[in-house]
What does this fold into?
Amino acid sequence: MRQAKMSLVAMATMLAVSSGAQAGDTEFKFGGYVKADVMFSDYSNGAPDSGYLSRQFYVPGTIYGDSSNGNQVVDFHARETRFNFKTSTDLDGHKLSGFIELDFMTHGDGNERLSNSYSPRIRHAFVSYDNWTVGQTWTTFQNPGALPENLDFVGAADGTPFARQTMIRYTSGGFQFAIENPETTVTPNGGGGRITSGSGMVPDFIARYNFKTEGGAKFTVAGLARQLNVEIDNLDTQEIAYGVSVTGVIPVGDDDIKLSATAGDGLGRYMALNYANAGVLDANGEIETISSYGGFAAYRHWWTDKWRSSVTLSGFKADNNEALTGGGVNKESYSTYVNLLYSPVKPMTVGVEYMYAENTKQNGDNGDLNRVIFSVKYVL
It folds into this structure.
């Protein structure tokens, strides 16, 4: 009997937390969603192995596949499912909050043979006190509010800045200033495997301004400055990199247009999921930055209050110095999406999406991906 009473208390506590509970001056809230995807994919150069990253979602540069695997595959997974926990405390007029969120994407552990067991990973883990934010969350260089409503995990991956990392950020009105975790990726002289370096003492510096127009449109302008640093074996080289990104969400009646445009020298991992590196080593072992630019445009139309569709075009291009990088590096990537989504009740969405992507290397080799995604999503 005592065990049954304890179980009822635990269940009541969980239900209270899931809908939002309060203890003293602290409010607790549990959230997240359940999402199941079925993906039918056709890779022009052969499908990657089961469980590989591009079998979970579209990652530019990973669709070249393995010709020995065949071209057409189907994947069922619920790995995008996520949960989060938030607290908010009023301290004599000051606001203190904490947030942590986990999902099950990107891991190579687990398999599809028996239990489909995958480890959780940290997406966000940060604390905020008034205008200060410390911890891991979206890079200040990215505006996640401008991402289109696509069923693919990222959607418009080619044309958007995308990173989560640990930072110290200060917000004042529409302005945000941050120092964030540095990491350098470069191409060896003549080509070859990516060199990743966490050397150096200089953080990445990012400034951003968010503003609205009288018509309800929302825009952001962000600037990035960072030091590329490689200190590996006999290499000891540094170079300055920078970038600018502009995003917008423009209402058109009940519909909306979402836009993003980004360009810079040495953007590297900040763009297109690190489709291109930030730089390449020359014959003297010095870093030469790689210029790149990308963007996307998406239009969302509401057919009724329950039916809607989005059409998205996304692209990225890197200006490689082929004499240094060789011809095997990634050059340009494009993708397009069209979907139909239905929400019979507000927390639930079912939908279908078609996407096409094409990636081209510097030497002209290319690969393409056709994919149809069916999804069911329930917001907790």
